[in-house]
């Protein structure tokens, strides 16, 4: 049932970094992102009623330890873990706190301090939450000596190639676009532009994926401050408020593990979750994929960006390659996808990723994204996916009636972070 309107009134994030490059720990990352979001919102931490904190690698109350850097007010703090969808899950929780009338202002904070190299399980003495997915994948494809996540998404890409004739080069074109976009994003872990040939000839991780088509592990944090309509108005924040007009989370259905079909490998990679969540958001908002101007989606691997085009309904099934060849996924096309550089270039600190997407969407809709700004962006959509699984789709829009109101805060960090205090 629809509840109260919910607005993002402030966002902030750290620059994403290669693990170990910067001498910092998660409390320092979280403090930096949280302070930037609070400054953007023109409020103090004391005005925040409830806090949802997302991270994947850490002990049970890291959320409290991180937030205590901002203040110790005795307010509720919830620790959230939903694999790579953790950041957006924290955002979804914060939205529901306000939507349901539990509070007037909430914070969603995410961070991750990671290790270099591919992701792996930390607990070998208990059932792996991905065991059903991996067993199903091995019924269809022989397990290879490659990172498991690369196999899940690489096999989804292979399935698309086998069923629709998609070329390996098409996946590389996605990585080319995202690496190019990252050059204009000072928050990105990597800001190097590569030629298509360089991407194709990079070391193979799991065909059709090369190293430059895979996201890195990262250190970093991001934060969003959400508020009710009454809070926005009482604090004079109408000019900068971005409404979360729709949001939905979906998890795996039983169909993922049933008999083999022509889309079994894409289902294992979360394709159905994406479809379910996006269709729910379109129903909530009365808008469709053709109404969206800018998207940040979960390009953990180039193959996932391609299949997500179809999962979000941006094009028909089997037509993602045509969508790319026509330039419909880029500046000057139908919709600009991953102007930030996406996970492939910006980086992927798991708990922060979904909230970094939120920050980019708000900067784009407020016209504050600098060189990566999408012209006349009015409707934005984000997509955050975690294997195991969860998919969160969110839609954003600035209220038309508030567009002429000046923003309360004077300095935006959309074009890049200030000099680090760390």
From TrEMBL:
Q: Name one GO cellular component term.
A: peroxisome
PROSITE patterns annotated for this entry?
THIOLASE_1, THIOLASE_2
Which controlled-vocabulary keywords does the entry list? Lipid transport, Lipid-binding, Peroxisome, Transferase, Transport
Pfam families (UniProt xref): Thiolase_C_1, Thiolase_N
Give me any GO biological process, just one.
lipid transport
Instruction: Tell me what organism the protein belongs to.
Output: Aplanochytrium stocchinoi
Please list the residue ranges annotated as the Thiolase C-terminal domain: 268-389
- What EC number(s) is this enzyme filed under? 2.3.1.176
Which parts of the sequence belong to the Thiolase N-terminal domain?
6-229
What molecular functions are annotated in GO for this chain? acyltransferase activity, transferring groups other than amino-acyl groups; lipid binding
What the entry lists under Gene3D superfamilies is as follows: 3.40.47.10
What subcellular locations does the record give?
Answer: Peroxisome
Chain coiled-coil ranges: none
The name this protein goes by in its record: propanoyl-CoA C-acyltransferase
Q: What's the chief localization of this chain?
A: other
């Amino acid at each position: 049932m629809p509840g109260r309107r919910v607005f993002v009134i402030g966002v902030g994030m750290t620059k994403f970094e290669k693990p170990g490059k910067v001498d910092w720990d998660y409390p320092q990352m979280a403090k930096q992102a949280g302070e930037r979001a609070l400054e953007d919102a023109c409020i103090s931490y004391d005005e925040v009623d409830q806090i949802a904190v997302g991270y994947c690698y850490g002990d049970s109350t890291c959320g409290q330890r991180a937030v205590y850097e901002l203040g110790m007010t005795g307010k509720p703090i919830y620790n959230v873990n939903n694999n790579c969808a953790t950041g957006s899950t924290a955002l979804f929780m914060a939205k529901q706190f306000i939507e349901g009338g539990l509070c007037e202002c909430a914070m969603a904070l995410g961070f991750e301090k990671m290790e270099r190299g591919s992701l792996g399980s930390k607990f070998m003495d208990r059932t792996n939450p991905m065991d059903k997915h991996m067993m199903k994948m091995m019924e269809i494809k022989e397990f290879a000596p490659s990172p498991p996540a690369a196999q899940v998404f690489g096999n989804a890409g292979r399935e698309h190639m086998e069923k629709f004739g998609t070329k390996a080069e098409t996946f590389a074109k996605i990585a080319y676009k995202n690496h190019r976009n990252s050059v204009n994003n000072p928050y990105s872990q990597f800001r190097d532009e590569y030629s298509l040939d360089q991407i194709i000839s990079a070391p193979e991780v799991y065909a059709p994926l090369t190293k430059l088509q895979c996201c890195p592990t990262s250190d970093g944090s991001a934060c969003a401050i959400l508020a009710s309509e009454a809070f926005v108005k009482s604090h004079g924040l109408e000019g900068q408020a971005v409404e979360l007009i729709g949001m939905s989370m979906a998890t795996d259905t039983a169909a993922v593990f049933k008999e083999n079909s022509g889309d079994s490998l894409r289902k294992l990679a979360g394709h159905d979750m994406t479809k379910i969540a996006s269709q729910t958001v379109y129903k909530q908002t009365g808008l469709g994929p053709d109404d969206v101007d800018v998207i940040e989606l979960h390009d953990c691997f180039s193959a996932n960006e391609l299949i997500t085009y179809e999962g979000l309904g941006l094009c028909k099934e089997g037509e993602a390659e045509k969508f790319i060849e026509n330039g419909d996924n880029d500046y000057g096309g139908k919709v600009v996808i991953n102007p930030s550089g996406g996970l492939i270039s910006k980086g992927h600190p798991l708990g922060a990723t979904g909230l970094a997407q939120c920050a980019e969407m708000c900067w784009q809709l407020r016209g504050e994204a600098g060189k990566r700004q999408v012209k006349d962006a009015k409707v934005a959509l984000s997509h955050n996916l975690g294997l195991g699984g969860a998919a969160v789709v969110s839609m954003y829009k600035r209220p038309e009636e508030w567009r002429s109101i000046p923003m309360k805060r004077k300095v935006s960090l959309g074009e890049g972070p200030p000099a680090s205090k760390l």
